[in-house]
Amino acid sequence: MVDGEYVVEKPFRNYHLTQYTMNVPRQLLEVGFTHDPKHIIVIDSSSKMYIVRVRNKSKKWKTMVLGRGWKKFQVANDLRKGDVIKMCFDPKYLDNLRCVVRRS
User: Fold this and answer.
1) Taking CA atoms, which of 13, 24, 29, 37 is between 20 and 30 Å from 61?
2) What pairing do the DSSP bridges indicate for beta strands 39-43 and 96-102?
3) What mean pLDDT value characterizes the chain?
4) Distance from the Cα of residue 96 to its chain's centroid
5) Widest Cα–Cα separation across the chain
6) 1 falls within a domain
7) Residue 89 sits in a domain of what CATH number?
8) Which residues belong to the signal peptide in this entry (predicted)?
């Protein structure tokens, strides 16, 4: 994994199995993007890319939601309860979020 300026580890929970979304801290996207993105590219450990929609209800929220497109990433990487997803901004590429799954 490329070392990012800001790294987040998110546990995968039962809720994620049915909702197909992932909350990420706003700071992660603020570090990696110079604008407020509507879509980002999520890259998995095999370098496959997924276009994922970013939802943001208001500026005061401390999290943003990875929505449409996240399901494809989730299914392709066979995410299960207890897995941990390590996310970081990849400074080599604009609008990319690198994600590595660690199995429980």
Assistant:
1) 13
2) parallel
3) 82
4) 9
5) 35
6) no
7) 2.40.330.10
8) none
76, pLDDT greater than 90: yes
> Is residue 2 a part of any domain in this protein?
no
Count the residues in the chain: 104
The parent domain of residue 44 ranges over 7-102
- Residue 13 makes CB contacts below 8 A (sequence gap 6+) with 81
Give the chain as a DSSP string: -PPPSSEEEEE--HHHHHH--EEEEHHHHHHH-SS--SEEEEE-TT--EEEEEEE-S-TT-SEEEE-TTHHHHHHHTT--TT-EEEEEE-TTSTTEEEEEEE--
Q: Which amino acid is at 53?
A: R
33-62 confidence digits (pLDDT tens):
666 678 888 999 999 999 999 887 556 667
| pLDDT tens for each residue of 13-40 | 888 888 888 988 877 777 766 666 788 8
Number of domains present in the structure of the chain: 1
